[in-house]
Amino acid sequence: MIRIELLSTENFKPDSLDNYQRKQDVKKVYRKHNGEYILVDCVYIEDWDMEKRRFVAKDISSDDSIAYLAIENDEVVGFIGLKKDLVESYMILDMMHVSAACRGQGIGRRLFDVGKEEARKAGAKALYISACSSEETIAFYKAMGAELTDRPITEFAEAEPYDLQM
How far apart are CA 104 and CA 89, in angstroms? Predict the structure, then answer.
């Protein structure tokens, strides 16, 4: 049984993501062409080494973040990290991932729903997402009801020029 819990010092340590399976086989990504986003071939594997896992663990457990974990058998199998401080009345969805072995089970939807509730509680008008442009990632966020924004937040759009701003 996978449970969703607010990250705390009881359920999360600096090494809690050491065995986390981030792997994603990307085949297609969205790119802007003549003012429209189209899918183009771009084959690569997204994965995290130990240094990246530890960096992410530190980031989502910082005082600047609110994070929820998906936990199965005391292992983190997914998480959502949100920035506490609103930007232009948006709560920033900093990162969200579900372990490779656990995708397709509704965990992402559960985490996203918790993120939306946190945004509501904070008084945000919506979640702001600077999303990886992979076909699967954008399909997920669109299934959650996210749409491309016509007013991107400059700092996010410039920091990740290939991300889609939603």
Answer: 31
pTM of the model: 0.94
| Structure tokens belonging to residue 81 | 């990290």
Q: Using one digit for the tens of pLDDT, what is the confidence trace for 76-94?
A: 999 999 999 999 999 999 9
* Helix (H/G/I), strand (E/B), else coil: 63: coil
Which residues does residue 134 pair with via DSSP β-bridges, in sequence order? Answer: 29
pLDDT tens, residue by residue, 23-32: 999 999 999 9
